[in-house]
Structure of 6-phosphogluconolactonase:
Amino acid sequence: MMKKNVFDSKIKAAEALAEYAAGEIARKSGYFNLAVSGGSTPAGFFSLLASKYQKVVNWSKVRLFWVDERCVSPDHEESNYRMTSETLLDHIPLPAENVFRMRGEEDPEEEARRYGNTLKELVPSGEGIPVFDMILLGMGDDGHTASIFPDQISLMNSSEICQTAVHPVSGQRRITITGPVINKGKKVVFLVTGDGKRAMMEKIFRHDPVYPASLVQPKSGELLFYLDKGADPS
Ligand SMILES: O=C1O[C@H](COP(=O)(O)O)[C@@H](O)[C@H](O)[C@H]1O
């Protein structure tokens, strides 16, 4: 099932998503396994969780994972972990043992293997694939999602849980969960904002198969879009 939610501003989209995520966490008994994206878009959502929902959410039941990471040290300005720490983790009582970062500073191939094994060990699986309670995705204006870029679209159909990737322009190495893991998620949520994303969003809603974000089609989970009106093509 697919549901599109459009809001007047990116702050309103982040507010609605924070309310939704907090509700989903509250509804779950046992661990809530959440995988988050990086880049710049989730910062507002994370900040809201860290302020408005800091005392509302039972953070000890959240286990936090990453959808993708840039192969840099965790204090690097481009680190997805660093962005999440500064906007969310530094402000909430989420136990350190519930935080499972991708180690961008390690050898990428080894780290992709290690992280895949961590996911297999900790996240309940279906048909051998980890099933996250929620996966937060972003979309680049080139149609990539996670660190799966159009020129490496085979990662959407990989037999691995986690793989390495390369940014097509900068050549920066990346580690990413693969398409089958994304499509196993119970709630797969795109947060996309800004006029600059509208043209690509239109292609994604047309399911243009050239773009990885178009191939996000959860098998039995729910696909949700949180957009601001700038990113909405309709
Ligand atoms: O490189 C990345 O890009 C996407 C989109 O980022 P945004 O800054 O345009 O929101 C992001 O979802 C991914 O996690 C990140 O590594």
In short: The chain has a mean pLDDT of 98. Residues 37-41, 67-68, 80, 138, 140, 147 surround LXAUTJHC (CB under 6 Å). The radius of gyration is 16 Å. The longest strand covers residues 222-228.
